[in-house]
Each structure stands twice: as C-alpha cells, then as structure tokens.
Amino acid sequence: MIVADLVQFGRSHGIACVARGSAAGSIVTYLLEIANVDPIRYGLLFERFLNPERVNPPDIDIDFADDRRADVIEYVRQKYGRDAVAQIITFGTMGAKSVVRDVGRVMGLSYGECDRLAKMIPFDLKMTLAKALKVSPELKQAYESEESRAS
User: Fold this and answer.
1) Which of 14, 53, 106, 112 measures 20 to 30 Å from 83, CA to CA?
2) How far is residue 69's CA from residue 15's CA, in Å, rounded to a whole number?
3) pLDDT, tens digit, for every residue of 98-149?
4) Which residues partner with 87 through β-bridges?
C-alpha cells in the first residue's frame, strides 16, 4: 500500500514512474496501479514475484524521473515522518569477463574480438584482470603483443 501511495503521488504530480522487474507478474501490483502491465493478459508468472523457494522476500522496484526524485522523497518524509525514512544505495561490481566485453565494445572492438579476449580469462568468481594476466599466458600474450584494434 505504501508503494501504491508513492506511485499515485508521483503520477498525480506529473512525475514519470514505472514499476519494473518481477513485480509486473503480480495481479495485486496491477490492480493497485503500481504496475501498468496486466500479468494475466500477457501470461506473466506470479512465481517470479512471490515464490516459497526464493531466499529473499519480494520487493517492488520503482523508477522515478531523476529530475523529480527529490519531490517524491520529500513527500515520503512529510507523510511518513523523517525518522521513518532512509535512503539506501547498492554498488555492483562486474566480473573480469564482463569488463573486457563492455570496455571492448566502448572502444569499438567487434563482439567477436571482445568475446575472444573474454574467453581467455579463467572462470573464477573472484577473478580480476590483474590475476587473469598472471594465470592466463594466452591473455598475457594478447595484452603484450596486440595493439588496440578500436576504430
């Protein structure tokens, strides 16, 4: 109900806001006008949102227009009390293979070239580029001998 309140406030004040992720599979979020996609019409799976095997409880991701986010935060503080509102942030990290693929594309390398280099990086959840250069002779050779082919 709180999320529905935030979305209703945003929309009634011309603030673009949209629900995304697994919440779209819930008829409740649709009926509360949090999500604007009818999950029955599109055959979305409710189990993506609420599943007994899921480790974490469900959440509803809402994106508000960047230039009006402060208005929504102030509304929440006024309505629910400053002592009951907190802002959080999450930081994500990218694996070494993903970094090579993304940076390579930014540098103008072809998908095939990025993929070739990424495949030289050994699979390890804690792999870094520095470690990959030490443990992968093939990657080290490419690093030392190949010029950037970026266009």
Assistant:
1) 14
2) 8
3) 999 999 999 999 999 999 999 999 998 889 999 999 999 999 999 999 876 5
4) none
- pTM score: 0.60
- Segment 102-111, tens digit of pLDDT: 999 999 999 9
Q: Do 16 and 31 meet the contact criterion of CB atoms below 8 Å apart? A: no
What was the pLDDT predicted at 148? 60
* C-beta separation of 6 from 76 below 8 A: yes
Please report the DSSP string for 118-145 in residue order: HTTSPP-TT--HHHHHHH-HHHHHHHHH
The residues with which 112 forms a beta bridge, in sequence order, are none
- Two structure tokens written together for 121: 């990086």
CA 29 to CA 128: how far, in whole Å?
40
**Helical pair 69-80 and 2-12, crossing angle rounded to 10 deg:** 130
Contact between residue 7 and residue 61 where contact means Cβ atoms under 8 Å apart: no
